[in-house]
């Protein structure tokens, strides 16, 4: 569908309707609601169409038609002009004259409403925004949860994109929040979600001993003659 003068308004999410001249032979039918000419469907509600800046021009996006109706051009309201992407009826009329040479309020026209389909870039931006919002909300929740049970968390530090970490200055444990495709919350070995081990020295020492033994076994395997066989 050609939008020679107004395509940018669609891309900017300012235009959701268009008025078109009624050509000879065009007929509006229902079930499904569609505009036909010479037994060929020109436009149909629910279908997707390319946004073009001119004939044989490359598509700059796509729209899905939500309704088609016929009404006099002069029946437009100020809200209709806004839906067309203009600030006023006068601005719409001036553009109509620029396109068609004159403005006749009694002229019947097709009124087509539509929604812009999301592009891959739009979807990527929406996904990133969702991830950022989840990261922000989750770090707030983790901060409240962990400080309530005695942890004293440092400021959240960005380890990499969509990846934040905070450390407890008391028990030296840490919490990591990742908001990528696989969202997760990870605690390091000294970070206990139910209590700060700094308030439980015996348990903290037991965890350290367990950690040292585990590392010792790993090192023994690495240094053994069977490593890599």
Strand content: 25-35%
Tally of structural domains: 2
Q: Low-confidence parts, pLDDT < 50 over ≥5 residues?
A: none
| CATH first level of the largest domain | Alpha Beta
Number of helices: 5
> Which sequence of strands runs across the widest sheet?
1-7-6-5
**Mean of the pLDDT scores?**
93
> Helical amount among residues, as a percent range?
25-40%
Fold and architecture overview:
This protein is α+β, with helices and mostly antiparallel strands. It folds into two domains: 7-117, Sulfate adenylyltransferase (Roll); 126-223, no CATH class. 33% of the residues lie in helices and 28% in strands. The strands form three sheets. It has a four-stranded antiparallel sheet with strand order 1-7-6-5. Strand 5 and strand 6 (59-72) form a beta hairpin. The longest helix is centred in the middle third of the chain and has 29 residues, at 120-148.
Concise summary:
This protein is α+β, with helices and mostly antiparallel strands.
